[in-house]
Structure prediction request, 121 residues.
Amino acid sequence: QVQLVESGGGSVQAGGSLKLSCAPSGDTTGLYMGWFRQLPGKEREAVAGIASGGIPTYGASAKGRFNISKDNAKNVLTLEVNDLKPEDTAMYCCAADPSSYNLWHGSPKYWGQGTQVTVST
Prediction:
């Protein structure tokens, strides 16, 4: 069983940056991991994913300002978001699944509780 615990959310002014972290417990060997976000009143969307070999993939809304990385030694997944905009205000959740397909289609096996990011003007 894998548990995912996010941290790093908070309130930030537009133009700033945040680094979100996800610390898994349990064996994540071979799991595809990623980040989702859910904007107020919107469906949850996958924004970034990374394979166990370190190759990142980004959703259309995340290209250019988001950077996903995984420190295999520390077993920590990170999402850096730069030049934050008010429309980035959302609950950000870490997720993992043996299959990238499952993650990008919204049905990963493992979910974190999420961390709130609020961007003000």
Observations:
- The radius of gyration is 13 Å.
- Residues 46 and 105 are 8 Å apart (CA to CA).
- The mean pLDDT is 95.
- The chain is about 5% helix and 50% strand.
